[in-house]
Write a structure and sequence with these properties.
Residues 60-84 are annotated as: Disordered. The chain has helices at 7-24, 37-55, 58-61, 93-114, 118-131, 142-158, 162-182, 203-227, 231-247, 253-269, 273-287, 296-301, 303-338, 347-370, 380-387, 398-418, 425-445, 449-469, 476-501, 509-531, 546-565, 571-594, 603-629. The chain is mainly α.
Length: 630
């Protein structure tokens, strides 16, 4: 071992250390017109080390008492093969030199990838794997084998060769699992091959670095599975990655928090609200570890503080938006469970769900115990406390729904503080639309028709001013969304007022005026939506685009219904209204005759339109007859 400390070997170690410094530290200072200057210098040093290693005798660097080599072959082509089934002798001098050469090949490969020379990088990484193909499950080699495959996985994923990337990464995963099962001791880190004994890492630091390499494997596999649309596996691996980052304290708070919030959205789409809530609670707690948001005064005095302030505000607002989606989706999914075939609350179903809730809660608690939770001594209590503020179980009545609504509304306020209309138009409007949707779904749970109508009025108050001010030339799609939603909102208010009117014997002038106003307002916004589809010359399209087909025909159908609902004491005005209604119904029928493929998109509306096309002329003639008689 004495020769390991020869002057020549010390020179090798010094060059290796310098190459690391150049690559990791000095490269950050490289000028824009020469961005890889330090990387190229690091590469030259690595090449010099490789030449020296090749010229060393085996015995010069390590004890050569045992030079036996493992003869078990392992595929190096990215196939989903198992890791080498035998371990090489830990004191093999040939094996140690192969590992050292492999380390240099690895860093040369990474160097070429970082300087955008992908083919050369791949060549070096494959050479690294070839050097170690007979000896993978050893304390000396296992970390290198995993990290080389991680890099090849990234490389092939970047080339859109997802399945090839999958092969390398899954092999890296199997190597880790096999090593932990058969050995489990903290393995050598790549850097330790080129330092003296006095600079060897502690067992704790070795463990940390090895586990970090495996965490990267899981993270890259999560991306691969997502690209392969294997979303269940992607979610599982993403969750494991986040858990391990917390466990080994290997995370950047802002980045971790956003990743956890993003994962929550996947769980929400699968109606796994317990896991979704847990991710969001953890996200909100961990983002707090990034520190307090600098004051506006501090941000004005320092560019660094300004950027930090904006970044923190943005990320917290983004997490807030994820909370809004959580609350909104929980309420909407509860509505789907509770509504009958005409979209109203099914009280029998409500009672049935109440009876089964106890069993459901017990089952969810069992699920929680088996779920991988984000926990550490510093954060677990805070995460649980935040979870307790909002349910993960479907609300069954107005009070339970309101509790979820209030949490969502609180996050609406927080999100709007950053995503202001000035500078964040689209984001601001999307938040308002979510706020409107929260009111809409809450109204479903309320049996008080007058209070429901007031909730829809709140939706109008949120969206109508924005719709009036927005320039359709630049925000056509958003304008259409707002116009259609406002039309629907007024339409729902009209239906509620109609239901209230049915309970009265006589309608006073004020009620009639209010009802007609709601009908007219709904028609106005439906007409605005329909007009947005016209050509610059004002011509309605002969054939509607697929994304506009159902909305446009539904708008025509509802305009027809609204026109017929207008209340007037004048028979001639009634006839005018009914004629306009008939024209709109006829449009729906004629369009579907001309374009038969449209029938499937508006089956119910078409059936009713055909019926009204036959009935309305009779009604119109009856009113005319009365006028003539009088």
């Amino acid at each position: 071992m004495a020769s390991s400390y020869s002057q020549e070997w010390r020179s090798v170690c010094d060059k290796f250390r310098d190459s690391q410094t150049l690559s990791d530290v000095e490269s950050r200072k490289d000028p824009e017109n020469d961005p890889f200057r330090s990387k190229y210098k690091a590469r030259d040093l690595l090449k010099e080390i490789y030449t020296v290693l090749n010229n060393f005798d085996i015995g010069e660097t390590e004890n050569d008492d045992n030079d036996a080599e493992c003869q078990t072959e392992e595929p190096v082509d990215g196939g989903k093969g198992e890791a080498c089934g035998r371990s090489c002798p830990g004191d093999s001098s040939a094996g140690i030199r192969a590992a050292k050469l492999g380390v240099i090949e690895y860093y040369l490969g990474v160097n070429h990838l970082e300087t955008e020379e992908l083919s050369a990088g791949e060549e070096h990484l494959m050479k690294c794997m070839k050097l170690l193909e007979r000896c993978t499950i050893t304390q000396e080699n296992v970390s290198l084998c995993i990290q080389a495959r991680n890099q090849l996985g990234i490389l092939w994923a970047g080339r859109d060769e997802t399945e090839k990337a999958q092969g390398f990464l899954e092999t890296a995963e199997s190597i880790y699992i096999r090593y932990m099962k058969e050995d489990g001791q903290p393995p050598m880190d790549l850097t330790e091959f080129f330092v003296g004994e006095e600079d060897q890492l502690s067992q704790q630091e070795r463990t940390k670095r090895f586990e970090m390499a495996y965490t990267h494997t899981l993270y890259y596999l999560a991306q691969v599975y997502k690209n392969l649309e294997q979303f269940e596996r992607a979610g599982k691996y993403c969750h494991s990655t986040l858990q391990r980052q917390l466990e080994f304290n290997q995370f950047v708070p802002l980045e971790w928090a956003i990743n956890a919030a993003t994962l929550s959205q996947y769980y929400i789409t699968k109606t796994r609200y317990m896991e979704g809530r847990h991710c969001l609670a953890a996200s909100s707690v961990i983002v707090g570890l990034a520190g307090e948001v600098p004051s506006e005064a501090a941000a004005q005095e320092s560019e660094v503080e300004y950027e930090r302030r904006e970044q923190l505000r943005q990320k917290r607002a983004e997490i807030g938006r994820c909370w809004i989606k959580y609350c909104l989706n929980l309420l909407q999914d509860a509505r789907k469970l509770l509504e009958d075939n005409i979209g109203e609350l099914d009280v029998d179903r409500q009672a049935e769900l109440r009876r089964t809730r106890r069993d459901e809660e017990e089952e969810r608690e069992r699920e929680r115990k088996s779920t991988v939770l984000f926990s550490s001594s510093d954060t677990f209590d805070s995460i649980c406390a935040l979870e307790d503020k909002v349910s993960c179980i479907f609300p069954l009545d107005f009070d339970e729904a309101r509790a979820v609504f209030l949490v969502g509304q609180n996050y609406v306020g927080e999100a709007k503080e950053y995503f202001e209309m000035d500078g964040h138009v689209t984001d601001h409007i999307e938040i308002l639309q979510d706020h409107s949707a929260l009111f809409k779904v809450l109204a479903f749970f309320d049996e008080d028709l007058d209070r429901r109508c007031k909730m829809h009025k709140r939706r109008v108050d949120l969206l109508e001013p924005i719709c009036k001010d927005l320039n359709a030339q630049y925000y056509l799609l958003v304008c259409r969304q707002l116009q259609f939603e406002l039309a629907e909102t007024y339409y729902e208010m009209m239906d509620l007022k109609l239901a209230l009117a049915d309970r009265q014997d006589d309608l006073d002038a004020h009620t009639v005026k209010k009802f007609n106003h709601l009908c007219s307002s709904s028609m106005r916004f439906y007409d605005m939506f329909l007009d947005s589809t016209r050509s610059p010359e004002g011509k309605f399209p002969d054939k509607l685009e697929d994304d506009l087909l159902r909305p446009a025909l539904v708008a025509k159908f509802r305009v027809a219904r609204l026109q017929s609902k207008l209340i007037s004491s004048s028979p001639s005005v009634q006839i005018d209204n009914l004629n306009l209604s008939l024209e709109a119904y006829q449009f729906v029928v004629q369009y579907c005759k001309k374009h038969p493929e449209a029938k499937a998109t508006v089956e119910t509306e078409l059936e009713l339109s055909e019926e009204m096309v036959n009935l309305l002329p009779i009604k119109i003639n009856r009113i005319r007859a009365k006028i003539t008689t009088n």
